[in-house]
Amino acid sequence: MLSGLSRPRALALCALPVAALLAVAGLAPLPYAIAQPGSTADVLGKDKGREVITITGAPVRAPIEGQLRMTTILATGPSTDVDLADVADAWFRTDRAVLPHDSVYPSGKSDAEIEKHNLGQMKKSQDSATLAALGYLKKDPDEVKVTLHLADIGGPSAGLLFSLGIVDKLAGDGAGGDLTGGRVVAGTGTIDAAGAVGAVGGVSLKTQAAARDGATVFLVPKAECSEAQAGLPKGLRLVPVTALSDAVASLRALEQGQESEIPAC
Fold first, then answer.
1. How high is the pLDDT of residue 37?
2. Which residue blocks in 137-257 are alpha helix, DSSP H?
3. Residue 197: which of 249, 241, 252, 134 has the closest Cα?
4. What pLDDT, on the 0 to 100 scale, is given for residue 123?
5. Domain ranges within the chain, ordered by starting residue
6. Rounded to whole angstroms, what are the CA distances from 154 to 68, 157, 214, 219?
7. Inter-residue contact 34 to 86 (CB < 8 Å)
8. Residue 102: which region, alpha, beta or left (left: phi > 0; alpha: psi -120 to 50)?
């Protein structure tokens, strides 16, 4: 019994601990990361004055028109605290995404260890991209040497675009050559040495980054079509892919106006 207190007063006093708990919860760090559209980079161009793709041992096309832009997301740092207010703000914005922290960064790792891990993933991705492209073109990796350079970006999600860039720059036997038709093409996807394309994260944010930077076509892993369609920027065409060969075939069909040959999400 609440002796000596009116009912409204008693309820107000009982609410104080609840309000205090909610306030603490609102300030407490949560196991999430907040992501937004990141930078894009043309793999057919230069990064900080250096060619992203350098090839020796085979003829290379020049000049190159059009762009193949790999896409990224920008997430809060591995040691950055995200609270309830941050999550609530991001939840209702189309240019933000709330992701489980462990889906973005390996758990139990320091910032330095995470950076090393991401750079290692990028190096592995570049090696697989090179093997996939040379395998597709039936070129001997002992004769054709490919060097890939892209500073300050880690992770495996640029693999597909690296492979396409290598195919696009190589010329001489009809298998390589212009893939963009002068367009700005963007995309994302991991790739293995056999040319299979794998899913990545943050696709809906990457489509926004692509549209912002002038892309009209976006290559997306087929398994992530639904996510890519959510909030798809106006004027950006989605082309689903499962393999490097799919991506090349779709871009060639697009260039030649063969609409019936181009898959859609």
1. 95
2. 159-169, 203-212, 225-229, 244-255
3. 241
4. 83
5. 38-73+110-261
6. 18, 9, 23, 20
7. yes
8. alpha
* Choices 3.30.230, 1.25.40, 1.10.10, 3.30.1740: CATH for 38-73+110-261: 3.30.230
Calpha distance 192→119 (Å, rounded): 17
Identify the DSSP state of 60.
B
Phi (first) and psi of residue 124, to 5 degrees: -60, -40
Instruction: Give the whole-angstrom CA distance, residue 9 versus residue 5.
Output: 6
Low-confidence spans in the chain with pLDDT less than 70:
1-29, 77, 101, 103-104, 106, 108-109, 111, 114-115, 117-118, 171-177
- CA-CA distances (angstroms) from residue 211 to 15, 188, 236, 240, 257? 48, 13, 6, 17, 22
Per-residue pLDDT, 57: 95
| pTM to 2 decimal places | 0.82
What residue has token string 């992203």?
Answer: 52
